[in-house]
Specification:
The complex is a heterodimer of chains A (361) and B (182). Chain A is α+β, with helices and mostly antiparallel strands and 361 residues long. Chain A has helices at residues 3-15, 20-32, 34-71, 87-126, 136-149, 178-181, 312-319, 343-351; strands spanning 127-129, 132-133, 160-167, 173-177, 186-190, 196-205, 210-215, 228-229, 239-244, 251-259, 269-273, 284-287, 291-300, 307-311, 354-360. Chain A has 3 domains: 3-73; 89-127; 144-360, Thrombin, subunit H. Chain B is mainly alpha-helical and 182 residues long. In chain B, 77% of the residues lie in helices and 0% in strands. The chains are: A alpha+beta (361), B mainly alpha (182).
């Protein structure tokens, strides 16, 4: 039996390919020949070794096919397509995703709530009317003096406001802010010479925050108005000036147009960089040519030097609604007497037509 | 109950269920890669170690009497950790691997057996590498992929299966010689 034949026989025996008599003969040979026996078991082991080796190679190949999917996303959040990951890890992923999502939800809701509240707060805080509470200190001092003299006097009226208005006709029509005279019992105007006039509100427009007053005295007359109403919109950087009554004294202010819209994008108004203080509400805003371009209404309290003025176009629209027989529109269309004058002369001419508004309620 | 599920996966792995292999592979590889990357290893090291551990697992499962005493995850992690430790210690700049909480008795045992077998397999691998064509392919086709002699005869252009069979025996003898030579 040569080697080749022996292997063949052994293998046939192991594979069970032998016929029954062949097998019997081979087994009897095995029993008699321990060398052959050893060779058979050796061969068996060898074959299993060979098969194991093959299996390993096979298994490696299969793993290598899978590996790219496991390795590539290893540093990312989701290591594999969801369908392949078994339930335990999927559930774990879901837990963490759910936890992250709920944290994100709570955080964003809280942020929104806080932002909304602060936005609401700042909305009221940022915009500030510039009418003023008049003479409170003075009045309280007076009250004290009166107290000494006469103990029966009642408390002083605390709700007294002041603002500014200016003439829009020669016969006593004035324009101021609606918020200045809102809820007024009686309105008094006072010029820079200290003369006072009783006035009534004849027209109020809440949306543009404008009000038209008329001096109660029908014989009231002023000199021809030195300024005119500007129709065309003004441009950024336009130098402007204003006169108003933040104090009991008329105050001149100078600045420039800084934006085409007012507070929070209000298209009815300009943003003006000009010093304004409580009491400036209703003050006229003129450009360097002496044309009226707006009416001061308020300021942004959170930052310095930001004031707002209603555009003159809205004043014009308002004036068109006034009764023609009483309100002479031509008064605002005279020759502009301020054009080309030095600033001090402009101020001197303008101050006659600017009044302090005192409101009692 | 997790262990039962893992055991079930192992059974499927033993019968060459690709899906089971995929599940085990994808679920556990990232963990091993993290461990190895954290301990002075590269992604390639991680791949080698993990696949080696998978082979341990596979062969254990194939034996049929392997019963998990811990979770599959614990087993794989422990095997990989031990292998990596060994590799680190054999390397030029050996660094200590921090002790881990989880240990697996299975892992230690399996690894021991694996290392013994591994030497033999490496011999087989070198032998197969030396034997050359067409013996290598014939043997692989017959003993590993279980193709019939008839198919092999056709593939290699032998006139009949008997000739192919003779060739195969010759190859097997050469392989045996190569294998036992070293």
């Amino acid at each position: 039996m040569n080697e080749l034949h022996k292997i063949q026989e052994i293998e046939r025996y192991l594979d069970g390919e032998m016929t029954a008599p062949e097998k019997e003969a081979f087994e009897s040979l095995l029993r008699r020949n321990p060398d052959l026996q050893r060779e058979v078991s050796g061969h068996e082991a060898f074959l299993s070794q060979l098969r194991g080796h093959g299996q390993r190679q096979d298994f490696r190949a299969r793993m290598n096919a899978i590996h790219p999917r496991a390795a590539a996303p290893a540093h990312q959040v989701q290591p594999a397509p969801a369908t392949i990951v078994s339930m335990t890890s999927r559930r774990r992923t879901w837990y963490s995703v759910a936890a992250a999502a709920s944290i994100a939800l709570v955080t964003s809701l809280a942020t929104m709530a806080i932002m909304q509240r602060s936005a609401k707060n700042s909305y009221t805080a940022k915009y500030e009317d510039v009418r003023r509470v008049l003479n409170n200190i003075q009045r309280s001092q007076n009250a004290l003096i009166r107290d000494i003299n006469n103990k029966n006097t009642g408390p002083a009226n605390p709700g007294t406001y002041g603002g500014t208005c200016f003439a829009i006709s020669r016969n006593g029509y004035m324009v101021t802010n609606y918020h200045v005279i809102a809820g007024a019992d009686s309105i008094y105007l006072q010029n820079n010479k200290g003369e006072a006039f009783k006035a009534v509100s004849v027209f109020e427009d809440v949306s543009s925050d404008l009000a038209v007053l008329r001096v109660a005295d029908s014989t009231f007359r002023t000199a021809p108005l030195p300024y005119t109403l500007k129709n065309a919109p003004s441009r950024l950087g336009q130098e402007v000036f204003s006169m108003g009554y933040p104090r009991d004294e008329i105050v001149f202010g100078m600045g420039y147009l800084s934006a085409q819209t007012g507070f929070n994008g209000d298209t009815l108004a300009y943003q003006v960089s000009i010093p304004v203080n409580p009491g400036n509400s209703g003050a006229p805003l003129l450009d360097t040519n002496g044309e009226l371009i707006g009416i001061i209404t308020g300021r942004q309290s959170t930052s310095e030097g930001i004031a707002f003025a209603v555009k003159s176009g809205h004043l014009k629209r308002l004036l068109e609604e006034l009764p023609k027989e009483k309100f002479n529109r031509k008064d605002l269309k005279q020759k502009n007497q301020l054009t080309g004058l030095p600033r001090v002369d402009q101020a001197r001419k303008l101050e006659e037509f600017v009044y302090m508004v005192k409101v009692y309620n | 109950m997790h262990i039962e599920k893992d055991q079930e996966l192992l059974h499927r792995l033993a019968v060459n269920d690709d899906k089971a292999l995929e599940i085990i592979y994808l679920e556990h590889y990232p963990m091993v890669e993290r461990m190895i990357l954290q301990h002075y290893g590269s992604a390639d090291d991680a791949k080698d170690i993990f696949q080696e551990a998978m082979i341990v697992l596979y062969e254990k499962a194939k034996e049929g009497n392997f019963v998990l005493s811990s979770r599959l995850k614990t087993f794989i992690y422990a095997v990989c950790r031990r292998m990596w430790l060994k590799k680190l210690q054999s390397g030029p700049n050996s660094a200590p691997l921090p002790d881990d909480v989880e240990e697996s008795a299975d892992a230690a045992e399996a690894l021991e057996a694996h290392l013994e077998k591994d030497a033999q397999f490496r011999q087989m691998e070198t032998a197969m590498g030396k034997i050359g064509e067409p013996c290598k392919t014939i043997l692989e086709e017959y003993y590993i992929r279980h193709r019939s002699m008839q198919e092999i005869a056709e593939q290699f252009g032998y006139t009949n299966a008997e000739n192919a069979k003779n060739q195969k025996y010759k190859c097997l003898m050469r392989l045996k010689k190569l294998f036992f030579a070293n």
